[in-house]
Specification:
The complex is a heterodimer of chains A (271) and B (331).
Chain A lengths: L2 H16 L1 H4 L37 H37 L1 H15 L3 H12 L3 H12 L1 H15 L2 H8 L4 H37 L11 H9 L7 H28 L6
Helix pairs in contact in A: 1-3, 1-11, 3-4, 3-6, 3-7, 3-9, 3-11, 5-6, 7-9, 8-9, 9-10, 9-11, 10-11
Chain B lengths: L1 H24 L5 H6 L6 H10 L6 H13 L13 H36 L4 H15 L2 H15 L22 H7 L3 H38 L2 H8 L4 H39 L4 H10 L3 H29 L6
Helix pairs in contact in B: 1-13, 5-6, 5-9, 5-11, 5-13, 6-9, 7-9, 7-11, 8-9, 9-11, 10-11, 11-12, 11-13, 12-13
The chains are: A mainly alpha (271), B mainly alpha (331).
């Protein structure tokens, strides 16, 4: 029921990200020290042409939020797409071939699961240095474990099904069975998990950028914007508050959409 | 069974160690140069410091050294504090444990009653609130939630302190390093309350994602259990409703909670770094973040390893607990 709303929210964020240069009222990097920490328009000293106020360098917060959507959405989608691709292949191989293939892949999965996610990401970002490309790689290194576990479990079950046996007795190759017979039958949970994971990846990217290990200035990133505002908590609450709100709304919309997807695909679920 | 799980730990821990070591030794930036930066050190001085710290050895040699010493509980010298890593970490550990345990307790105290109520009164007011609340909880970045709490309760209302673990003047004599325990041992009520006041906001921030996930799990699990035949049977037998809920339903509903809670300690351990940074909490998480920027390899290595080992052990303990609670999976 909430699906249309959630989807509308997600689409709105994506459109904002795509059309950022046309939507943003100001240049997100244009500093104006006369507008340093200018409050949002409804407070005294605010100005409707800078509706959400300005940060410590006098840059328009709304414009930075609009451009920041690009970073969050780009990283969320690319990381999860990459991880899903790797995870599906690894999971299919581990589940279908078993024996040493499964031992190697599952061993690697177990090792990676031994790291709390954020700690792994922080450690690796320290090694690779900040930057968008490195964030994508670092998060994908660990993220693929999640789809791979889902796919492995489903493949183990599917392997014993009659339709697989039938294909095998007709002389189909393993590759054919995996990609044309098994994959289409197990793809639904993978899509649901991927949708929900985008939300978590966006939060992880924001956390890394908050710690100063992620997206570097001058590229506007919501996590880094929250961090910038920390020093001005006392007299300029808006600098930290709005970017955090943006993260929450985007993640909320994705989570809602993902949950509705799950319930839609799974007739057994009741709520 | 238990033995097999323990044996399985060895390759996992070894793998975790190798990856941690690779991460740290491939990190750009030379600690010797960073330590001497701005002191006009000559190239020879830098080289001699590097030799002093064993950094001139090849990575493989350093790794073997590291493992050998780690097994004896020796993690080398912290490059900045110039003291054994184990003692630097040991100093910071109590603050982090105190914070994490407080967060865990808050998460359980919120999630279990809320989830049970939401599960029992399906589609009721509590159920709706719990569902919305847990969705908001998983969607909110922890660092932002912490800053909001700070702006509201510390800056605007001035009810609670902005940062730190305790007021310097209220510091009790160090016995265990756990301030709440030390304050009690010293019989200092003021120190105890002051520590609690510092603890509230970071603990709530750290607890939020875990509470959100656990509420959803308890709710779903409770709804599931209440549909089972043994619950109908207990009711038909005339067992009072509260007893049905507590003895029959809740006990079974807690099974998945155990596993999920253990997995979620991962968010607690990672969240430590963020929350301690936001609230200036003098624990291990903040130490690790600082050490990363200082290229203090030995310390980061030991800490990441400690986090990973803790996480793996907690999940092992949860599996064992699960077996103890659920006779069906007992070997």
């Amino acid at each position: 029921m909430s699906f249309p709303f959630a989807m509308a929210g997600v689409v709105a964020f994506v459109l904002i990200a795509v059309f950022a240069p046309w939507l943003a009222p100001h240049d997100p990097a244009a500093a104006d020290l006369f507008r340093r920490l200018q409050p949002p328009f409804w407070l005294e000293g605010g100005d409707l042409s800078y509706p959400l106020g300005c940060d410590a360098l006098g840059r328009d917060i709304l414009s930075r939020l609009i451009f920041g959507a690009r970073v969050s959405i780009f990283i969320g989608i690319v990381v999860v797409a990459l991880a899903t691709l790797i995870g599906v292949l690894a999971g299919l191989a581990a589940g279908y071939f078993g024996s040493w293939v499964d031992t190697v892949i599952s061993g690697l999965v177990d090792i990676l699961l031994g790291f709390p996610y954020l700690i792994f990401a922080i450690g690796l970002m320290a090694m690779m240095g900040p930057g968008i490309g490195n964030i994508v790689l670092v998060l994908a290194y660990k993220e693929w474990v999640i789809p791979s576990r889902v796919v492995r479990g489903e493949t183990l079950a599917a392997r014993e099904m009659d339709y697989v046996e039938a294909a095998r007795s007709l002389g189909a190759s393993s590759i054919f069975i995996l990609l044309r017979e098994i994959l289409p039958n197990i793809i639904t949970p993978v899509i649901v998990v991927a949708t929900l994971r985008i939300a978590q990846v966006i939060i992880l990217e924001a956390s890394l950028s908050f710690l100063g290990l992620g997206v570097q200035p001058p590229t506007p990133s919501w996590g880094a914007m929250v961090a910038d505002g920390r020093s001005f908590m006392l007299d300029a609450w808006w600098v930290s508050t709005f970017p955090g709100l943006a993260i929450m709304l985007l993640v909320l919309a994705i989570n809602l959409a993902g949950q509705s997807l799950r319930h839609g695909f799974d007739p057994r679920s009741t709520t | 069974m238990i033995l097999r799980r323990l044996l399985h730990l060895i390759p996992v821990l070894l793998g975790v160690t190798v990856i941690t070591f690779l991460m740290m030794s491939a990190t750009p930036g030379d600690p010797a140069e960073i330590m001497l930066a701005g002191q006009n050190a000559s190239a020879e001085q830098v080289a001699s410091l590097r030799r002093d710290m064993g950094l001139d050895q090849p990575a493989a040699v350093r790794f073997v050294h590291f493992i050998g010493h780690a097994l004896e509980g020796d993690f080398g010298q912290s490059l900045f504090q110039r003291r054994p890593v184990a003692s630097v970490i040991g100093e910071r550990l109590p603050a982090t444990i105190e914070l994490s345990v407080a967060a865990l307790l808050i998460a359980l105290l919120v999630a279990v009653p809320l989830g049970v109520l939401a599960g029992v009164y399906r589609h009721g007011v509590v159920d709706r609130l719990a569902t919305i609340g847990s969705l908001l909880g998983v969607s909110m970045p922890g660092f932002w939630f912490g800053i909001l709490l700070l702006i509201l309760f510390a800056v605007r209302l001035r009810w609670l302190p902005v940062s730190g673990e305790i007021d310097f003047s209220a510091m009790p004599p160090r016995v265990t390093g756990f301030l709440l325990i030390d304050a009690m041992l010293a019989g200092r009520w003021r120190s105890f309350v002051d520590t609690l006041r510092h603890l509230v906001l970071p603990a709530i921030t750290l607890a939020l994602p875990m509470a959100a996930v656990l509420t959803a799990v308890v709710r779903a699990s409770m709804q599931d259990v209440l549909r089972r035949p043994f619950v109908s049977f207990a009711r038909a037998k005339g067992v009072p409703e509260w007893r049905v809920l507590v003895r029959h339903a809740l006990r079974n509903a807690m099974l998945p909670v155990v596993s999920v809670a253990a997995l979620e300690t991962g968010s607690l351990l990672g969240g430590n770094m963020i929350v301690e940074t936001v609230f200036g909490w003098p624990g291990l998480g903040r130490l690790v973040v600082e050490s990363i920027f200082q290229r203090n390899y030995p310390l980061v290595q030991a800490a990441v390893l400690l986090y990973a080992v803790t996480y793996v052990l907690i999940n092992l303990a949860a599996d064992l607990l699960y077996m103890a609670l659920n006779p069906r999976v007992r070997p």
